[in-house]
Amino acid sequence: MSATNKNNRRNAIRYLLAGFMAVATSGTPPALAADWTDTNNATYTALRSINGGATDIATGGGWIVTDITPTCTDTVKIRFRLHDTWTQTLWCGRGTTTTSATFTGFFLDNVIRCDRNANAGAKGATTPGTANDCTVVANYDTCQFLVNDEVQGAMMASGNYNVGSALMLFGSHTKGTDLSDLIAAEDVDNRGSYDLYYFQLYSSAGALTHNLMPAARDSDGAVGLFDTVTSNFYAKATNSGDFTSEAKTVVTGTPVKWTGLGGDNNMSNPANWEGGVVPVAGQDLDFTIATPLVPINADINATFGNVWLGDVEKTTFTGTLTANDVNNRSMLEVADGATVTLLNVVASAIWTGTANNGEFYDPDNWTCLNEVGTPIAGAFPHTIPPSPSVRMFPSIAGRTSISPGYLDR
Predict the structure, then answer these.
(1) How far apart are alpha carbons 162 and 164 in whole angstroms?
(2) 3-state DSSP assignment of residue 330
(3) Residue 256, strand partner residues
(4) Rounded to the nearest 5°, which phi and psi values hold at 9?
(5) What is the pTM of this model?
(6) Has residue 201 got a pLDDT over 50?
């Protein structure tokens, strides 16, 4: 890409951001209605995460057996947080026997391991540690591992698999394709005590075919995974223990709620909003249950109120979004060529991108304001006191996301 194009792309993004900590929006009305409805009209409330709750590799905890059988061209994406160091199952799909035609993911020997065919395992080179958010992306060709959104490198070479049994989470089994009784407790090992944020399957064409999100059934409080693509709910297996869970961020006020069920991710599509009504200027927007990793196209010419984002995965916007503020700015990501403008904040640093091919660390690409609001051209943001007011930025288009604190150097 030419230097001119890079500059044009960066010039399309204006950052009007202030404050090291996320700013909460106002309002105190009751929480929103149910997040999802299944094919039988049962309703479900989204959770931030569920945890298998196992106490060791073979004791306690819950596990889930789905009716989903991965194919050899599917790609898995899973986001989780470890709390214990014993061997744990991220996902498990067996073939005709327990040692052939497998596609499984484990936390094993303090690293991430993916197995395909006859338990031919490939291990990640980086120890994820506990209390870190981890993401694994795996298919027949590669397996990539991220810790706190930092890529750790490719982990496995090419291979193939042909799963013959249903997908299982939070435990692996020894039954091949025989899943009678939804897996008896004695058949399950490598049980999980990690927080699961989501599990996704993508086709070879890149289409999202399954999006399993933590949820609680409103009628009885049953905790499990809701597939927002098929509207199926997967509760714990008959013979398993119970899950623990963490509630998602509760949005107060009366925002218009994004569902993303319209099939195109355009904000102008009524089918993407709860109640089938497109938001209008001045309304607050709730994206807390937006599908992870699926960009939202801001194609409405209006200035909105406050924007609510989830706190697990960054929400990416294409198009042009103008709003008063965002509740959690570190979770805002701007795609190439998009524009996000936040009006109701004090501008500590404004990106101009006019110098040195749009190099982020060049001071001439920024116009900063000092503590009394006077513009200072050519001053890099973190040099302007007080530094905490200018440390948080979403990603520059075309560059890796910058998390809070990375600019404090």
Answers:
(1) 6
(2) helix
(3) 285
(4) -65, -45
(5) 0.76
(6) yes
| Dihedral sign from CA coordinates of 387, 391, 397, 400 | positive
Averaged pLDDT, 199-205: 93
Composition of the chain by helix, strand, coil, percent to 5: 10, 35, 55
Q: Is residue 312 exposed (0-12), middle (13-18) or buried (19+ Cβ within 10 Å)?
A: buried
CA dihedral 210, 215, 218, 220 (to 10 degrees): 100
* Alpha-carbon gap, residue 76 to 139, rounded angstroms: 6
The DSSP code sequence of 89-154 is: EEEB---SSTTSS-EEEEEETTEEEEEESTT-EEE-SS---SSSEEEEEE-SS-EEEEETTEEEEE
Give pLDDT tens digits for 331-378. 888 887 788 887 765 555 666 666 766 666 666 766 665 544 556 665
What pLDDT is attached to residue 41?
93
Nearest Cα residue to 204 out of 371, 375, 76: 76
pLDDT, tens digit (0-9, with 9 covering 90-100), for 101-145: 788 888 888 888 888 765 556 666 567 878 788 998 888 777 888
Pair 166, 65: CB distance under 8 Å: yes
The two structure tokens encoding residue 322: 């103008």
Structural domains present in the chain: 3-28+251-390 (no CATH), 37-247 (2.60.120.200)
What's the rounded Cα separation, in Å, for the pair 172 and 60?
14
- pLDDT tens track for 307-330: 999 888 889 899 999 888 888 777
Measured at the CA of 156, the angle between CA 151 and CA 160, to 5 degrees, comes to: 130
